[in-house]
Specification:
The protein has 340 residues and is an alpha/beta fold. The protein folds into two domains: 5-76, no CATH class; 85-333, Alpha-Beta Complex (2-enoyl-CoA Hydratase, Chain A, domain 1). Helix content is 46%, strand content 16%. The protein has helices at 31-50, 55-74, 79-86, 94-101, 143-148, 156-171, 189-193, 196-208, 224-228, 249-256, 263-270, 274-279, 298-316, 321-333, and strands spanning 5-7, 25-27, 104-107, 120-127, 130-137, 176-182, 214-223, 235-239, 243-245, 285-287.
């Protein structure tokens, strides 16, 4: 099943000011909510134009019904619906959060070997009085920027840039925070020729022994080795509607079921949601999103991310370097189980 959405050109404002129509991009399962919000908007216009006070009670009743429908819809999303939410065209990206969370930010470029990969951004930052290095995947908005950012799929030089910045952070004893949001590493011939697999493997090796605190936050898609290459961390958090998996549902469906249209079925098999991964102890916590998704209130989401980063770093910085690395190794050694 393909990820589908409808482009609604009309705009309304719901009773709580958070109408899902405001950005014009609506997923299929959101349509009943949209239709109800449209009806409420039309009734309000009629009431204002005609002065019909008799509609006030009906509008209030429908607003309550819409609020209940929204709550029931977004608190009981299926795994496939969460995949759609994680890929939402208006979902905040790494730079959206950096601009809200950081009191200062200086982006650094290039891997000192080949090029600057704009699918990964990174640099020196400060959150309040805490200095750190931030690295993250960056997707684009619109065709032109998506081509520039390669749809958030890094080449080897992106991972080598990330590693260069991590080593810089270690040299200055600054913690590292990474934001994960990628369908996966770029699978092109050029990327393979320049050592895509080696670049990812090198990052895994180096991050496992980096002598500084590392915090990872999955903000959208966490796809395969492309995500793992900058997410070997002491603490991993996921936004409520983010996903984190060894492969995309479409890719999994193509392999297991020989049919990419079985992506919804594959999403259930992959157990890729935040609640799934928390239950398996792969991640350390879930950050609750505003109702209807992080893109409905970016400032509120950013505030929670900022609080989580500062609280977690304060805790991690209490541990000596050797202890930090030992605990990190134990964390990953405990993931999974074996039958003998």
């Amino acid at each position: 099943m393909a990820n589908s959405a409808t482009d609604f050109t009309s705009r309304t404002t719901a009773v709580d000011g958070k109408s899902i129509l405001r950005d014009g991009y609506v997923l299929d399962f959101e349509k009943p909510i949209v239709e109800m919000e449209q009806k409420i908007s039309e009734m309000k216009q009629i009431a204002r134009a005609s002065g019909m006070d008799s509609l006030t009670e009906e509008i209030r009743r429908m607003e309550k019904k819409a609020a209940k429908l929204k709550h029931e819809t977004y608190r009981k999303l299926t795994r496939w619906q969460k995949v759609q939410m994680a890929r939402h065209a208006q979902r905040p990206y790494t730079l959206d959060y950096i601009s809200r969370v950081c009191s200062s930010w200086t982006e650094l470029h290039g891997d000192r070997h080949f090029a600057d990969d704009k699918a990964i951004v990174g640099g020196l930052a400060r959150i309040d009085e805490t200095p750190l290095v931030i690295i993250g995947h960056q997707k684009g908005r619109g065709t032109k920027e998506n081509l520039l950012r390669n749809f958030g799929m890094p080449n080897p030089e992106g991972y080598r840039k990330a590693l260069r910045l991590m080593k810089l952070a270690a040299g200055f004893q600054r913690p590292v925070v990474t934001f994960i949001d990628t369908p996966g590493a770029y699978p092109g011939i050029g990327a393979e020729e320049r050592g895509q697999a080696e670049a990812i493997a090198r990052n895994l090796f180096e991050m496992a022994r980096l002598p500084i605190p590392i915090v990872t936050i999955v903000i959208g898609e966490g796809g395969s080795g492309g995500a793992l290459a900058i997410s070997i961390a002491d603490r991993i958090f996921m936004l409520e509607h983010a996903i984190y998996s060894v492969i995309s549902p479409e890719g999994c469906a193509s392999i297991l079921y020989r049919d990419a249209s079985e992506a919804e079925r594959a999403a259930d098999a992959l157990k890729l949601t935040a609640s799934d991964l928390l239950s398996m102890k792969i991640i350390d916590g879930i950050l609750e999103e505003p109702l209807a998704g992080a893109h409905r209130d970016v400032d509120k989401m950013a505030a929670l991310i900022k609080k989580t980063i500062l609280t977690t770093l304060k805790e991690l910085q209490k541990s000596p370097q050797e202890e930090l690395i030992r605990i990190r190794h134990e964390k990953y050694a405990k993931i999974g189980f074996w039958l003998e």
